[in-house]
Amino acid sequence: MKQSVRFFWRLFFIGIGFFIAILLMANFGVFGKMPSIEELENPTIAQASEIYASEGTLMGKFYLPSGNRSIVKYKEISPNVINALVATEDKRFYEHSGIDIIGTLRAISSGGTKGGGSTITQQLALALFNERARNPVKRVIQKLKEWVIAVKLERNFTKEEILALYLNAVPYPDNVFGIRNASRTFFQKEPGQLNVDEAALLVGTINGPGVYNPRRNPKASMDRRNLVLGRMAENGDISAAEAANLQAKPIVLNYQKPSEDLGYAPYFREVLREEVKKILKEISKPDGSSYNIYNDGLKIYTTINPVMQLYAEEAVAKQAPQLYRNVIRQGFVKNGSVWKSHENILKNAMKASERWRNLAEDGLSDKEIEATFHEKTPMKVFAWNAERSKDTVMTPYDSIKYHRLFTQAGFMAMDPLTGEVKAWVGGIDFKTFKYDHVNLNTKRQVGSTIKPLLYGEAVEELNFTPETPVQDIQQNFGGGRLVPATGGSCTGRTMPMANALAWSRNCATAYIMKQVGPGKFVDFLQRIGVPTKVAPHPSIALGACELSLFEMMWAYSMFGGRGFSTKPYFISRIEDRNGNVIKRLDYSVNRREAISESTAYIMSRMMQGPVDKGTAAGLRGRLGAAEMAGKTGTTNDNSDAWFMGFVPQLLAGVWVGSDDRFIRNEGSGGFGGAAARPIWEHFFKKVYANEEMGINKEDRFIEPPTLSNEAVSADPSSLILDESIAPSAEGQDIGVGTEQDYMLNNEEYIGPESAPLPEDPNKQKKPVKDTSKKVVKEKPIGTPEEPKKKKGFFRKIFGKKDD
Predict the structure, then answer these.
(1) What CA–CA distance (Å, rounded) separates 80 from 480?
(2) Which of 359, 369, 546, 772 could form a disulfide linkage to 581, CB 3.0–4.6 angstroms apart?
(3) What is the tens place of the pLDDT at every residue in 270-294?
(4) pTM value surpassing 0.85
């Protein structure tokens, strides 16, 4: 043998040995961590976390763009998509074992001009575990790692599973990830329904989602689609005639990109997001790493009732337009004087706007930016109509004023016994007004809705009864502290406590506060679970303190909860992507005994006075409820209007007001009984009418066996005989019109904000069975019925698992 030939073979075998050594080094992680066999058997594709209502309805998702995937199985993908992908990206896909030697040599010899050498499996390896390296040396190392991962994938998955994994993992135009989201976004179809030209278009975009975006670059997208159709014809998937016919067709899209605003209860989902993040900080995965709400495909099961949620949003949308009209028809709003001395609020809003940020990024000075806010421009603004928007022309500065005049609202409904939140409406329109008005951190003056809490302590600690006489006289707490501040509304008379509550008598309530003591009342609030630290001022008897609607629901739960106050909770459990329960929440840990069952019953019956003849007169009768309890609340200048009410099975609370407290409804329509009560009433009217809700209007509060006859010797409503005591701060709710004066009677129906998400055929409509006791490990894609098992070069060397 010639020396040159001997040298060549030595060099050849040394090269082979060096190449094998490099592959082994890559396999053992010398060039960076490699996934384990277990990780390859359960590859983690970034996947959105899904939110479910109490009966299994999909409410929405938490995701970053790359995590907004909805995983589909191979059998759910149209054969047209599979054929287009294989014909375009990897014609010998069924013949190789993850690495196509012929394709690799062709790519090397042509310098990449005749296509790259990466197989679908290699591209999947890159999509699952790496980002493409830009440095040439690092890219070579990355390519070696891709080869190793690709061969391992081929050993552990069928060809069909690899194709499904790939189509679920790769990006499509407009930052859409996964074949299901892509088919829904561009064609409003499931991936199994895509026809040939639609499949060719989507597969064609994989190679360059931005370049081949059919919305932005229709010509380039059509050329790419036609190329895919041509390759499908070459591969025998369609005939040449069919390819030519389809290539002549224009691109027809049915485009609608899913928005994170879509779904049920958008305000609630934002509160839920932060709560889940807190919970996840306390939980670790089996490998010790942290869960990610956006990428780990968690399933979050909530207590929300989707039907009640729609009723709640509809109730707010029915009343809020009337409240807005009440505000804008006032003289100080019409002439613009409402903004006098408040220009700083407008300027702060201007500087916090997206328009200001964008112009600042463009390099404009503050003065130049501010000038643009006084130039009229076409825009879309919020409006009370079916679309919740309208096109108009106004200055951006005027649009800030316009939007701040809208009256906001907060609504929550919950089971008073368990604390399960059934409905949550944080504002009038989440798309425009993001601020939530229900959560624990949003506090407003509560007005007279605090009175039942004070009266409840008097019953509990001082043995007061509905018939206990109280004096309707201004009270002096010493140090110049007079409550109320003026005694003009005091009658000077003595009346039963039930009368004082029904008519919301401020002076009589101040008398009860003097008997209880401000310090002891503050201690009582802490004992029943109110987390806000309230200062022991005598005026808190009239609601001169700020609490959130969430806290008021928490406090009122002790009445319907038979003496136990329960913190509202809205998460029942959290599961990982495989259905394993990683967190279960039990309401009992948030339940504490606050008052006796007897006190709870007495107060529930006594609060029937306001809804029968008091500040919410006639409410119980209009709804036809056997028993009902409630209390209105109104603060100075009508800045805040409240209504808290409950029946034996359901508690709900309403707050109404403007974010800027100087914007208020000074007319009679701004009182709690006129502004907030109609929302509560409309909600319960719908709930009562739907038998599936399980809220029976014939239900009554359960009388405890230990209740003494002296405690409720008479029906509280029978005590309210003398209506001459009606006029008072809250009493002025009476005699200013009927409920129809304050209920919206628009010709145009304004529906709830929530809307169902596209149905996922894989999801059960009923709650998923509890899997906390039985853990089943499954592959995320599933096994096809008849897997193809053609062997290629590397497949023969490494073999295939289960072959």
Answers:
(1) 84
(2) 772
(3) 999 999 999 999 999 988 889 999 8
(4) no
Q: Decide: residue 782, CB within 10 A, 0-12 exposed, 13-18 middle, 19+ buried.
A: middle
Question: Which amino acid is residue 23, in one-letter code?
Answer: L
Phi then psi dihedrals of residue 647, to 5 deg:
-120, 175
- Which pLDDT belongs to residue 144? 67
Contact 293, 283 (CB under 8 A): no
716: nearest Cα among 620, 651, 650: 620
Q: How far is CA 578 from the centre of its chain?
A: 22
Where does 428-479 show beta strands of DSSP type E? 443-445, 469-471, 475-476
743 in Cβ contact with 680 (< 8 Å): no
C-alpha 772: how far from chain center: 25
Residue range 649-678: mean pLDDT, rounded: 90
- Quick one: residue 336, left, alpha or beta (phi over 0 = left, psi -120 to 50 = alpha)? left
The more confidently predicted of residues 263 and 311 is: 311
Q: Please, which pLDDT band fits residue 354 given cuts at 50, 70 and 90? A: confident
With CA atoms as reference, report the closest residue to 561 among 585, 534, 543, 588. 588
Residue with tokens 């628009």: 746
Residues 6+ apart with CB under 8 A from 685: 623
Residues 6 or more apart whose CB falls under 8 angstroms from that of 93 comprise 86, 119, 120, 121, 159, 163
Q: What is the pLDDT of residue 705?
A: 85
Q: Are 87 and 234 in contact (CB under 8 A)?
A: yes
Per the structure block, which two tokens stand in for 405? 């005049």
CA 299 vs CA 584, 746, 755, 801: distances in Å: 12, 40, 20, 31
How far apart are the C-alpha atoms of 684 and 91, rounded to whole Å? 62
Cβ-in-10-Å burial (0-12, 13-18, 19+) of 20 comes to exposed
| Alpha-carbon gap, residue 558 to 644, rounded angstroms | 13
pLDDT interval class at 95 (50, 70, 90): confident
Distance (Å, rounded) from C-alpha 445 to C-alpha 404?
20
Contacts 24+ apart (CB under 8 A), 216-225: 216/173, 218/251, 221/251, 222/250, 222/251, 225/197, 225/200, 225/201, 225/251
Q: How far apart, in whole angstroms, are the C-alpha atoms of residue 784 and residue 157?
A: 11
Q: How many angstroms separate the CA atoms of 64 and 47, rounded?
A: 9
- Please list, in sequence order, all residues whose beta carbon lies within 8 angstroms of the beta carbon of residue 381, skipping any fewer than 6 positions away: 389, 390, 392, 394, 399, 402, 403
Q: How confident is the model at residue 323 (pLDDT cuts 50, 70, 90)?
A: very high
Residues ≥6 apart with Cβ < 8 Å to 629: 559, 560, 603, 604, 605, 606, 607, 608, 611, 645, 646, 647, 701
Strands, E assignment, 95-249: 171-172, 176-177
Integer angstrom CA distances of residue 30 from 21, 25, 33, 132: 11, 5, 8, 19
Q: At 81, phi and psi to the nearest 5?
A: -70, -45
Contact 324, 337 (CB under 8 A): no
